[in-house]
Amino acid sequence: MADDREPPPLDDEDVNDQDNDDLFTTAPEPKEDTGIKPEVPTEDSTDLSQPEAELDEPEDLFSGGGTEVSLEDTAGESHDTPEVNNVEPTPQKQEPKVDKPVVAASETPPATSAESKPSASSGASKTKEEVEEEESGDQYSTEITVSNPHKKGEGMNSYMVYQVNTKTSIPVFKKPEFSVTRRFSDFLGLHDKLAEKHIHAGRIVPPAPEKSVIGMTKIKMSKEESGGSSGDFVEKRRAALERYLNRTAAHSVLRMDPDFREFLELDSDLPKATSTSALSGAGVMRLFSKMGDAVGKMTFKMDETDEWFEDKQQQIENLDIQLRKLHVSLESLCVHRKELGFSTAAFAKSAAMLANAEEHTALSRAISQLAEIEEKIEQLHLDQADTDYFVFTELVKDYVALIGTVKLVFQQRVKVFKMWKEAEAMLNKKREAKAKLEIAHKTDKVPHAQEEITEWEGKVEKGQEEFEKISRTIRKEVARFDSKRVRDFKLTIINYLESLMNNQQQLVKYWETFLPEAKAIA
C-alpha cells in the first residue's frame, strides 16, 4: 500500500519539477535562440509553457523575467541587429505615436479658446515676416512728388492746382515716369474711392489732408499766389498731399487699385468730385453716418474673446492720447521758436541802431558785428521752427489721423461681428417657427420655413467667414502699421536731432567769430 501511495506525491513533485523546469527553461531558451530571434521565442515560450496557469502571479512575474533575460543579451546584439531590423517590432510601437496626434487634432476644434492663442502668435509672427518682405525687401519702388502749386481762376471761384510727378518701377504702370496736374478736390475724391473699397475689408487707408475753409478763403481773396500766411498754408498743404500719396503708394494693395493708377497716369482732368465739399449732400450723409456709428457703438458692445484684439485696441487708444498731447506740445514749440526768431530780429535792429549812435570806435564795431550775428541767428531760429513743423509736427499729425483710420477698421470688424450674430439670432427664430409649425401640424408651411432656415444658415456661414477674414486682414494691417510707424519715427527723430546739432554747431561758430571782436574792445 505504501508503494501504491507513493506515486501520487511523486507525480506532484514531477509536476512541480516540470513547472519549475518550465519556469527555468524560459530563461535559457532565449539564450539558445539569441543568435537568431531574440523576441519571438519569448512570446512563443510564454504562450506554450503556461496556457492554463495564467492566473498564477508568480508565473507571470517569472515570465516577465524571461523577457528581461532577453534584454540582458543586448551585449551580443552586434550580429543580431540586422535580423532585429528585419523583424522590426518598432513600427508597432510607432503606430500608437501616430495615432496620438490624430486624436489630439480631432479634439482641438472644440477648444476654440486654446486654439485661438497659438494661431494668434503664429499669425503675428507671419505678419511680421510678410511686412518685412513687403516693405524692406520690396522689389518695386515708387517715388511721388507734389510741386508747383498755383491758383487758377479769380475770386471765390478760384482753386489751387498741384503738379504730381511719379517715378516707379511697377510694370503695371504705362511709363516709368509721368506727370499730371490735380486740384485739391481730386485728392479728396481719390481717398473717398479707396476708403469705400478697402476699409470695409479691414485695410488701413491713409487719410487725405483735411479741408480748411479759412485757409482757402484767404488764398481765394488774396492777389498773390504765395507769400505771407497764405504762402505758408499752401506749402504745408503741398507737403501733406505729397506724404499722403507716398503712404498710399507704399501699400502693396492700394497702389494697384485702378483709381489710384488713374489718378497718377491720366493726362486729362479727372471728373470733378462733388461729394468732397463739407456742405454737399454726401458730406451731410457722412455726418449722419458717423453719428449713427457712434450711437451703435454705445448701444452694442462686442464681447471680445481674442486677447490680441483687446490688447491692441487698448494700445491704440493710449497711443492716440499720447500722440495728441505730443502734437499740441510740438505746435507750441514751433510758435515759441518763431517768436524767438522775431525777438532776435528785433534785438538785432536795436543793436544796429545802438552801434550807429556809439562814438567809441571799437565798441561801435563790436556792437555792429553783434547785430549782424543776431540777424544770422534769427534765420537759424526760423529754419529750426520750420524743421520742428515739417519734420516732426506734421509726422505726429499724420499718425494721429492714421490712428483714426485704425479705429475705423476695428469698428468695421465690430459691425461684421454684429451682423453675424444678428443672422444667428434670426436663424434661431426661424428654427423655432418651423418647430411650432410642425407641432401645429401645418405641413404646408414647413417647406417654406425650411427654405428660410437654409437661407439664413448660408448667411450665418457667410458672416462667420467674413468675420474671420477681416480679423486676419486687420492683424496684417496693424502689424504693417506698427512696423511702418517705428521706422518713420526712427528716421524722423534722427533727422530732427541732426538738424538741431547742425544749428547748434553753426550757432557756436557765429559766437566764436564774435568773441575776438569783443575782446578787442579797449
How would you describe this structure to a colleague?
β2 (about 160-170) and β3 form a beta hairpin. The chain has a three-stranded antiparallel β-sheet with strand order 1-2-3. α14 (about 305-355) runs antiparallel to α15 (about 360-440) and α15 (about 360-440) packs antiparallel against α16. It is built from 16 helices and three strands. The longest helix is centred in the C-terminal third of the chain and has 79 residues, at about 360-440. With about 525 residues, the protein is mainly alpha-helical. It is elongated. About 75% of the residues lie in helices and about 5% in strands. The model is unreliable at about 10-135 (pLDDT under 50).
Secondary-structure element series: HHHHHHHHEEEHHHHHHHH
Strand order of the largest sheet: 1-2-3
Q: Could you describe the largest sheet, including whether it forms a barrel?
A: 3 strands, antiparallel
What is the residue-mean pLDDT, rounded to a whole number? 77
What share of the residues does DSSP label as strand, in percent? 5-15%
Rg, Cα atoms, Å = 42 Å
Multimeric organization: single chain
| Uncertain regions spanning at least 5 consecutive residues | 10-137
**How many DSSP E strands?**
3
- Tell me, briefly, the overall form: elongated
- Roughly how much helix do the residues carry, as a percent range? over 70%
Number of helices: 16
Distance between the termini: 156 Å
Q: How would you classify the helix and strand content by structural class?
A: mainly alpha
What attributes characterize this protein structure?
522 residues, three-stranded antiparallel β-sheet, 73% helix, elongated
